[in-house]
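Sample log: Aldehyde dehydrogenase.
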Amino acid sequence: MSESATVFKNLIAGEWTESVSGKTFANINPADTRDVVGQFQASVVADAQAAIQAASSAFAQWRRTPVTARARIVNKAADWLESHADTFAQELTREEGKPLAQSRDEILRSAQVLRFYAVEAQSFTGETFPSDDPEQHVYTQREPLGVVTVITPWNFPISIPARKIAPALMAGNTVIFKPSSDAPLIGYRLAEAFAQAGIPAGVLNFITGRASDIGAAITESPVVRAISFTGSTAAGEHIHRSVPITTRTQMELGGKNPLIVMDDADLDRAVDLAVKGGLSLSGQACTGTSRILVMESVRETFTAKLVERVKSLKIGSGVTPGMDLGPLANRKQLESVLGYVASGKEQSTHLIGGEQLTGEGFEHGYYVTPAVFSDVPESARIYREEIFGPVLAITSVTGYDDAIAKANDTEYGLSAAIATSNPRYMHRFADEIEAGTVKINRTTTGNVINAPFGGLKRSSTSTFRESGRAGLEFYTQIKTVYRGL
Ligand code: NAD
């Protein structure tokens, strides 16, 4: 199969080009590792430099392109995604593993994000300020930064790039986009959508390859004025420390997201929040629920209900209709999750799951059954470290104060949820939880496209938010103008 796999090229300076390395790497289907989805360019520093050069040369003209003309291109790219949603969803599921319906939703949502920024950027302006001098007009104007780099992970391989690239382009910047090597095809489709929409050469450049080969080149160049990165805390913090001081960064990183279950909560609903928040996408969402802090008085009932629900979940290839969980995204993920399951068994009570599936239909994929642990102490690895897999850790709490203290006892602060019917707890939780996304009777996962998104503590650099209007703020700089007569 691998010999006949399509070779996908980089997009540099408006041309689909091969890497000067002459090498490619394989994009593998995690549901069936015999299936090579495509070959992608194993780019090297010279390719990265060509992309930076192209983006730099294109900037002057793009910055002067009227915002309505930019919007026409961005909307056309959205049309392309929408009209190809079914085929692209098949491709996304094939390379990443998530159920087909979720892939389709992600593509349509990405188109919506493009349309949102095509409109929002048209009314994104500066401010005017009162001045004592009647002959002086004081105002701010926003302008693009220049060349920006967008680096993204494999778990939402089109919606995360879309929410970074659309505001960057609409604000007048030129872009270098590097997708994850585990799901580069849908990123390629996004670049293709812009190319066929008529984006001028060099305004959006798409480059694939290993972070160890091109990572430094696309982040450390002083020509790159900003980096929007989503991925692991280790990689994000490394990049943040390595770039010139003049480079603006936006780092959306890991999480260890808690769900608090109070004794006044509707327990069936709380189970729903735990299962949807913790196990959809096979637990591979940055905002996925990972720790469940449940009141001792309802712990037994809640846990029994949760285990029953987990038993009923269906696991299988994302292309099979009705599956709740697909495979994990790659071998590293599989090994890491199995390692956490083993440590969970040593450090807490194992209730269900965590086995690799190897029987018929599963033997060539990275399948693991969802796992639930209880009596998880705060010192356990599965309590403290981001697992990024279908593993739920239950810890009991004695009251609200104990719950909030435990919820905040983490280096991360991406998302957090509480299940309660008590307005007092709702209010206190929103006030006291150390997380950038706060959910009350909602899953830790999921965010709307028109509101800011980002984490606190080590889940984000806490510089700029992305999504919504905040996305445009990141990609623009402010000048204060004093105009006299
Ligand atoms: P990763 O950090 O391994 O890789 C993310 C991207 O960064 C990839 O494209 C990778 O090639 C690139 N990269 C890695 N090191 C680099 C370097 N030194 N220079 C330049 N590029 C580099 O993460 P992953 O395994 O793809 O994704 C999983 C992680 O992403 C999890 O930790 C998860 O929590 C996080 N994530 C966070 C959010 C969020 O919004 N906060 C969303 C999704 C995923």
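Observation: DSSP finds 15 helices and 22 strands in the chain.
Observation: The pocket of nicotinamide-adenine-dinucleotide is lined by residues 151-155, 178, 180-181, 211, 215, 219, 230-232, 235, 238-239, 252-255, 286, 386, 388, 414, 455, 459 (CB under 6 Å).
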